[in-house]
């Protein structure tokens, strides 16, 4: 059976379009320190290229090929696939490292990770010295992490290309003098990348185009715009399920909330179908899922990504081929697939490293990781010395980590290309002199990359196009715009289920709340269907889900069932979900928006770009002909932007700047970003960091606060809150608060049970505000688990715990994710030696600590009952979900601003106005 599986995997590898250009790609990587690869969907770039480089000897001296993904689900799944292809255990030669999950080990040579994780690594290893190659995948997404990573990688590559020991050195003027780093190879990948822009950014880097393997996809539009895209998605799911032939459905939503909402809706409506039409398997996938949950979403399936680089001898001397993914689920699943294809256990030759999960080992030669993880590695190893090749996959996504990684890899590669010891060296002028690093091969990959831009960025890097494999996809549009896209999604789900032939359904929603809402609605409506139509399996996937739950999307539905996957944009790229034949695309995504003038960042639901819409429809044509149901009129598609604005140009840059400062990049305005953020955004973020005490008057990292804040993988305001909490003797409470604020809402309120939900949550409510209410929930959860585990054991406790959460209208997924984050952050603060104290039930000091930390997010009540945010002057209202909604205290601090039809502040706590001038005089004295 194993031989049969191996033979099948090898046949699949040989059938990939990229297989025919293996020698050419390896040759280009050897010739070019920066390479931009525009590989069409289905070309196999994500799984195969790291394996090519590993076999080509680009992992000498124990270095690693790092591959970043914008999302952890991609990093996880791709790493698993590559480990499978390599025939090794995940965590050995191939591994991944994402938040909460790291499968890498000392033997890992191909490491998948999120771009954010690579950024964090750069804090500890500024030269990213363990990497010989860094691959930034899905670079087209242009998240803020991607863009920061681009700039950072550019700088690291420059430094490593010459290993300068004096001269103009940027941040690395205090690096030891006795060691030289080999040049870093940098690869930027995407299926829809603007290769020209990236090429220019990397000094004319070469761009290579690889033909993909994509079957035709028919595009359908609604005749008019949908007023409720979740409802339209739901309708389309059922429409596909009932009217279309076999094939899974992929639905793009904007976040975990939407995914869970649609999942509920499908499960509610599914029983209403005839018995034979109820075989739907709903699989959610979104970024907040832990790696374990993500892994349960995915069954091993031909993903066509990241493998060939292993066979070209590019991992000699123990170095590693690193492949970055923007998402950890991609890093994990691809690593597993590559390990399977290689015939090794994951963690041996192939592994992944993502947050909270590292399967790599000393024998790992292909390492999948998120781009953020590779950035973190650069803090400890500035030259990424263990990597011979770095492949940046999905470079088109352009997360903030990806863009920073690009800049870093560009510099690292330049430094390693000639191991310079003096001259114009960027950051590396005091690098040790006695060791010379081999050049770093860099590959940039994507299915939709603007190769020209990336080639120019990397100094004219060559672009190679690889043909993909895509079946035809019929596109359907609505006649008019949907007023409620969630309702439309629900209707479409049942329409597909009842009218279409076999095949799974993928529904894209905007977040966890929408996903869980649709999931509930499906489950409510499903029993209303005839018995034979109730076989629908609802599978949500979003970022907050644990990896094992995310992996469920890959598992085939039980016999006779149809799977409905409710996903955020986490399912757009990187990974192939088997069985998908129908895609429901409401046309929306949840995106960051930042106004530097007001200093306010918010998450808003916006229309997708054309590039995103094409990526979504393409999900239906990976294994055979499919159908895509766009829940908006065709004329609306024509109005969409061609591509998504890079995240780095629409987010608060405080966290990015803090990481760059920790990497020694003091001249932020002069940092070599692929696309520079606005001067106003950089200046505002520098001002915020100064007010938080992270920067000195000279704009250098303060000691110890700034350095402590940089060590924590959190937004700066959360990091400062934890540091202050140690002084206010309430660190235990602040750890709980930060963990819960880092996930989607832990409460859920079904539309038809609003009063019951409010009544259930009253027992946790605090008159002082939402932060203390969250602490009460967390403490009650801990008490319940401790008591039950002693009585009945862990397995039974988990089942009873889910029931307890349901009875109290608590989102067990979000709460479990928060517990994982709490464990990780607690480990960080313990290593930093902070005083792990508790204020018990006396919350006065805790509220004062909140005021001292969140002083930039303070608001005072106005005579007419609204509030004025003191920092921005905006008129805001208390969100209806707050326990303070009807109490109207005089002064509050809040966690976030939410913009819908009105501006709302959410997660509030009552504070004394005089505390602000007492505890934050650096700001309020200036204001007065």
Automatic annotation (TrEMBL):
SUPFAM superfamilies: P-loop containing nucleoside triphosphate hydrolases. GO terms for molecular function: ATP binding; double-stranded RNA binding; hydrolase activity; RNA helicase activity. It is an enzyme of class 3 (hydrolase). GO terms for cellular component: nucleolus; spliceosomal complex. Its EC number is 3.6.4.13. Keywords: ATP-binding, Helicase, Hydrolase, mRNA processing, mRNA splicing, Nucleotide-binding, Spliceosome. Residues 26-211, 288-467 form the Helicase ATP-binding domain. InterPro entries: DEAD-box_helicase_OB_fold, DEAD/DEAH_box_helicase_dom, DNA/RNA_helicase_DEAH_CS, HA2_WH, Helicase-assoc_dom, Helicase_ATP-bd, Helicase_C-like, P-loop_NTPase. It catalyses: ATP + H2O = ADP + phosphate + H(+). One of its GO terms (biological process) is mRNA processing. It comes from the Eukaryota. This is RNA helicase. It comes from Phaseolus angularis. The lineage of its organism: Eukaryota, Viridiplantae, Streptophyta, Embryophyta, Tracheophyta.
């Amino acid at each position: 059976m194993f031989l049969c599986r191996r033979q099948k995997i090898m046949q699949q590898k040989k059938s990939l379009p990229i297989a025919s250009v293996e020698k050419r790609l390896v040759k280009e990587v050897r010739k070019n320190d920066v390479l931009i690869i525009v590989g069409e969907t289905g070309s196999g770039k994500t799984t195969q290229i790291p394996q090519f480089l590993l076999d080509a000897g680009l992992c000498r001296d124990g270095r690693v090929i790092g591959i970043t993904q914008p999302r952890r689900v991609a990093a996880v799944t791709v790493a698993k696939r590559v480990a499978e292809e390599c025939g090794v255990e995940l965590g050995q030669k191939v591994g991944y490292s994402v938040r909460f999950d790291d499968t890498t080990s000392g033997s890992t040579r191909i490491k998948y990770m999120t771009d954010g994780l690579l950024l964090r690594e750069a804090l500890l290893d500024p030269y990213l010295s363990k990497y010989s190659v860094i691959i930034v995948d899905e670079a087209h997404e242009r998240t803020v992490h991607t863009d920061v990573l681009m700039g950072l990688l550019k700088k690291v590559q420059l430094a490593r290309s010459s290993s300068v020991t004096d001269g103009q050195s940027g941040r690395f003027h205090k690096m030891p003098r006795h060691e030289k780093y080999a040049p870093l190879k940098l690869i930027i990948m995407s299926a829809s990348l603007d290769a020209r822009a990236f090429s220019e950014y990397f000094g004319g880097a070469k761009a290579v185009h690889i033909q993909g393997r994509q079957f035709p996809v028919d595009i359908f539009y609604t005749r008019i715009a949908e007023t409720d895209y979740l409802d339209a998605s739901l309708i389309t799911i059922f429409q596909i399920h009932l009217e279309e032939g076999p094939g899974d459905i992929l639905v793009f939503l904007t976040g975990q909330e939407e995914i869970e909402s649609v999942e509920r809706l499908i499960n509610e409506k599914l029983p209403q179908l005839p018995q034979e039409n109820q075989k739907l398997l709903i699989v959610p996938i979104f970024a907040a899922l832990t790696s374990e949950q993500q892994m349960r979403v995915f069954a091993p399936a031909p993903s066509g990504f990241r493998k060939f680089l292993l066979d070209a001898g590019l991992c000699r001397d123990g170095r590693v081929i690193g492949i970055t993914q923007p998402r950890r689920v991609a890093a994990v699943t691809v690593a597993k697939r590559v390990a399977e294809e290689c015939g090794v256990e994951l963690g041996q030759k192939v592994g992944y490293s993502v947050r909270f999960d590292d399967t790599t080992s000393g024998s790992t030669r292909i390492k999948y990781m998120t781009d953020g993880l590779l950035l973190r590695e650069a803090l400890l190893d500035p030259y990424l010395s263990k990597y011979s090749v770095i492949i940046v996959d999905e470079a088109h996504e352009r997360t903030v980590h990806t863009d920073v990684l690009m800049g870093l890899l560009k510099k690292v590669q330049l430094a390693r290309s000639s191991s310079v010891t003096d001259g114009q060296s960027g950051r590396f002028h005091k690098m040790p002199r006695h060791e010379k690093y081999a050049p770093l091969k860099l590959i940039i990959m994507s299915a939709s990359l603007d190769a020209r831009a990336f080639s120019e960025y990397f100094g004219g890097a060559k672009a190679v196009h690889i043909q993909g494999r895509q079946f035809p996809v019929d596109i359907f549009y609505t006649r008019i715009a949907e007023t409620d896209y969630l309702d439309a999604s629900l209707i479409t789900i049942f329409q597909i289920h009842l009218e279409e032939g076999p095949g799974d359904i993928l529904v894209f929603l905007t977040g966890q709340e929408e996903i869980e809402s649709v999931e509930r609605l499906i489950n409510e409506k499903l029993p209303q269907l005839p018995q034979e139509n109730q076989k629908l399996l609802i599978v949500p996937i979003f970022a907050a889900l644990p990896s094992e739950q995310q992996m469920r999307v890959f598992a085939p539905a039980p016999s006779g069932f149809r799977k409905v996957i409710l996903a955020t944009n986490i399912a757009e790229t990187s990974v192939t979900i088997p069985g998908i034949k129908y895609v429901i695309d409401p046309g929306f995504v949840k995106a960051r928006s930042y106004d530097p003038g007001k200093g306010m960042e918010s998450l808003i639901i916006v229309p997708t770009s054309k590039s995103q819409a094409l990526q979504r429809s393409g999900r239906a044509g990976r294994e055979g002909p499919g159908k895509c149901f766009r829940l908006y009129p065709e004329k609306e598609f024509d109005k969409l932007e061609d591509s998504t604005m890079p995240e780095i140009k629409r987010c608060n840059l405080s966290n990015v700047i803090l990481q760059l400062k920790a990497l020694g990049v003091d001249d932020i305005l002069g940092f070599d970003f692929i696309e520079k953020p606005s001067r106003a955004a950089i200046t505002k973020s520098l001002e915020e960091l100064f007010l938080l005490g992270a920067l000195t008057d000279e704009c250098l990292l303060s000691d110890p606060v700034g350095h402590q804040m940089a060590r924590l993988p959190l937004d700066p305001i959360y990091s400062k809150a934890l540091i202050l909490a140690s002084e206010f003797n309430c660190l235990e409470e602040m750890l709980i608060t930060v963990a819960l604020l880092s996930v989607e809402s832990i409460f859920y309120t079904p539309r038809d049970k609003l009063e019951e939900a409010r009544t259930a949550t009253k027992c946790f409510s605090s008159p002082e505000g939402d932060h203390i209410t969250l602490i009460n929930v967390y403490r009650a959860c801990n008490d319940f688990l401790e008591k039950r585990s002693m009585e009945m054991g862990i397995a039974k406790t988990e089942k009873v715990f889910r029931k307890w959460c349901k009875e109290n209208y608590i989102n067990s997924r979000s709460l479990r994710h928060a517990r994982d984050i709490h464990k990780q952050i607690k480990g960080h603060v313990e290593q930093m030696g902070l005083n792990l104290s508790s204020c018990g039930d006396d919350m006065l000091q805790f509220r004062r600590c909140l005021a001292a930390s969140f002083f930039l997010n303070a608001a005072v009540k106005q005579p007419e009952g609204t509030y004025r945010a003191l920092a921005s002057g905006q008129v805001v209202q208390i969100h209806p979900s707050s326990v303070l909604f009807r109490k109207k205290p005089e002064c509050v601090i809040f966690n976030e601003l939410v913009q819908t039809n009105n501006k709302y502040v959410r997660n509030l706590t009552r504070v004394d106005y005089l505390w602000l001038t007492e505890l934050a005089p650096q700001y309020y004295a200036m204001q007065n």
